[in-house]
Specification:
Blueprint lengths: L1 H24 L4 H10 L5 H14 L2
Helix pairs in contact: 1-3, 2-3
Length: 60
Amino acid sequence: MHLIQFREIMRDAEVAYAIHPIVRKYLLTVEDTTKALIACSAPRAANVAKITSALDYDRG
């Protein structure tokens, strides 16, 4: 069970890292990012959007 959750979190983080430049360029909100990911049928879209948003805060 924990291994499955870990893999999901890692996948979410990889997707978030990949889309982060676009989200940042177009100043997308978490809600906008979530809607776009849902439209693309991305699994766990809300989690990916939250991680993407958090990437900006980690840079301080």
